[in-house]
Task: structure prediction
Amino acid sequence: MMNVAEDYRRRQYDPEDISPQQTELATSLRVPFVTNEYHRWNYVCSVVVVEPNKWSPWAGLLPTDDEARMIASFIDEYREHWYRDTFKAVMAEFAPYDIDGGANLAILRKRPEDGGWQYRKRTWESGPHWWPDRESEPLTLAAVLDRVHTIAGDPMRHWQEWKSAHSEVFSDATEGTGQ
Result:
């Protein structure tokens, strides 16, 4: 029986879905900017960054450096909460971004129409394509990240504690987040 590390080592990472707009900062933070929401690799979290065109109705704007840092912290929280050090090391060795076939955290998008943020889950097959939908008021990135961590009411305690412990990343982003 093959273990997880052996399974990762037998595969070759191919960055075919990475956006040409991927920045050095985002790569150093392990935040993948992708060309569409149906990418080949199951990134723990990704950001759709693609110019509006006739082939992609779901264009996404490039995040600011501060937004990239916030997304990186969001990924860090997930990684610290759910993974053992051995698996974190395997992911780091395999690719410049965290990839886990069982993860379903979020695919993010910054709407070109108004700069508001949306997310979707890789496993969504019915219901909204993105949340919030296009007709909704734009939300901040922090508000969307809170929503990803919300089940029946308020954001989960471990996420709220993470944000408090990393307030330098989230300090300017509390409007509309319930904080």
